[in-house]
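Need tokens for this chain, all 269 residues.
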Amino acid sequence: MERVETGKNYVRYAMGRLGVIALRDGYVDMPSSRLRLTDGRAFGADLPAQVDLVDGKLRLSVNAFLVVDGDRHVLIDTGASNAWEPTMGVLLDALDEAGVARESIATVAFTHTHIDHVNGLVAADGSDAFPNLTRLLVPREEIALFDAEERLARFRSRRSPLDHGFALGDSVTAIRAHGHEIGHTAFEVTSAGETLVIWGDVVHVPSIQFARPEIAWELDTDRDLARLTRLDLLRRAAREGLFVAGAHLDFPGVGTVTESAGAFGFAPL
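Here are the structure tokens for all 269 residues:
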């Protein structure tokens, strides 16, 4: 996998016959109390110095990823559009900057149904962000959560359930990564003997959760399961030499994982 082109809001990678484009939707600032220890406590004055803060808050990048296989485009997550913080909603600009027409995206798949992953289906002007959308894949366990989002009501008739092992094409397969949300799903992308795992919200705060994967996120639906999922994916990535892509890793959010003495590290590609 090779980084071949960089813009302000996108980075393009080559992976065999595939193209993978990291797309910036923006960022969101969160209180450090979102980080939780194994006993459920938030950090106080003992917040480790390694945790990166901006004006006293955690700054989480918000990224989405587009897999391009010839004329087939699969978009993993869509950002928040104008449904959350004003520091988000850049994804459509990122696509324009990368030279990708919104009309070319017929398949959208979600890692999970949180606001910063699904609300980008609707552009800021209220129109469909992807006017030629024909396949909308939502983790089966989260169909009800998706349907409860009134902003997305027009898409209820078009969404289909997504299960572990579902093949989105010759090169993209859904894999179970539950914990952060009840149906949280990752996507394995394979080409030319290489594998990229687009893992959604497995890691929220890279400055500490690689080194200390036991640290959870307050908004994890099942923190214990989220910890296990994170540890399993980190071990696999380090052992097998996989590339990983994360929704909240510092943009562009693509790199490799190493393991040493039970701790992990992340190297941007």
